[in-house]
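Researcher: Next entry: UPF0122 protein ANBU17_30960 (Anaerostipes butyraticus).
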Amino acid sequence: MERIVKQNLLYDFYGELLTEHQKEIYGEHILNDMTPSEIAADHGITRQAAYDMIRRCNKILEGYEDRLQLVHKFLKTKEKVKEIHTLSQRILHEDKEQMKNDIRQIECVSNGILEDL
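Model: Predicted structure:
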C-alpha cells in the first residue's frame, strides 16, 4: 500500500487517540500535505521539532494498528465487498445454473465477512 494512503488510513482510524497538539501537527502534514518547514513556520517551532512530531505520530499510529488491526480488517472487508459486488453484477447477466453457483459464492464471502467482524 502506498505510504501516503496508509498514513491517511491510520490517521482516519486512530487520529482521535493523539493529543490535540499531535493531531494538529500530524493532520496538517497528512491532510493538507504541508512540509515540516511549513508546519514549523505556522506553529512557531523548529523544522526539526515538526519533523520529529510527524515521525513520533507515525510510530504511535502504526503501534495502534499493530495491536488493533482495524485498518487491516477494513481493507480485507472492502475486498470481500468488492467481490460480492462483482458477483452480483455477473448474476444479472447469467443463466440460472451459473446464477446459483454465484449466489452460493456470495453467501460464502458474506459469511466470511460476518466471521471477521
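Model: Note for the record: The mean pLDDT is 91.
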